[in-house]
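Trying the structure run again after the queue cleared.
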Amino acid sequence: MNRSARSARATSNETSTTRRASRAEWWRSYFDDVYLREYEPLFTLERDRREVARLLDILGLPSGARVLDVPCGQGRHAHLLAEAGFLVDGVDLSPQLLARARARGTGPTLHYHERDMRRLPRSWNRRFNAVLNLFTSFGFFADPGDDRRVVAEFARVLRPGGVLIWHGGDRDGVMARFLDRDWWQTSDGTLHAQERSFDPLSGILTIESRWSGPDGSGEREHRIRLYTPTRLAELCAEAGLIVEAAYDGWRDRSLTRRSSEMLLVARKEGARRELPARKSRR
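Done. Tokens:
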């Protein structure tokens, strides 16, 4: 093989490796303006307020409690939680979504940070009363060990007795009602379509998105590892978090085998329990 052929082959191999890495780390570039437009029908203030009201009901925390929203995206929940009187930190890796979050407003009770949720600040040990992981914001990484690291980080930054609220797709329910293709139109006239496939061995759901509208057209792909509630409870237990309740998504009813979404409430071990008052002797 001559030098030019070897060079061409090396370039081809490098390109192939780059493409594989790009596919594996789709989350680095996916959460942008196209994402905001694609999921626009779900991003309503009415829905945000309804979900935050449910969070307040489940958490039952006093004003001034510390809450971590990770990843926080465009601040849909973080902003309203700060309005409700909590000290809120939002973490996300997307500069575009964080810019949208900060545009909603920041202040002494609301701060946003551009960070990887696998590596939260070391100074946050036992800092928060609650950690929120919402809107299917889990299972992004190619290595399932990274999901375990994320849960461990959630546990590390929680105070003893603190609560993790996890919301996302339930593998059992999603498969029971699997929809392999779907389409919708957003307010600017853009037509969005998705085709979905699922690998039962890896648990990976692959979503191919295509769009066409006034601002152009395009296509891309993202992948999410779906979990059963059983496996998530095991991951939590490994990190010292005990699942206390499992709901059918945002509804105030128990999770069922056909629930397409689940909301799990897990508490960090080590809370100091109040002893019953002693009866006085006479």
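The first strand starts at residue 66 and ends at 69. Worth checking whether this holds up in the mutant runs.
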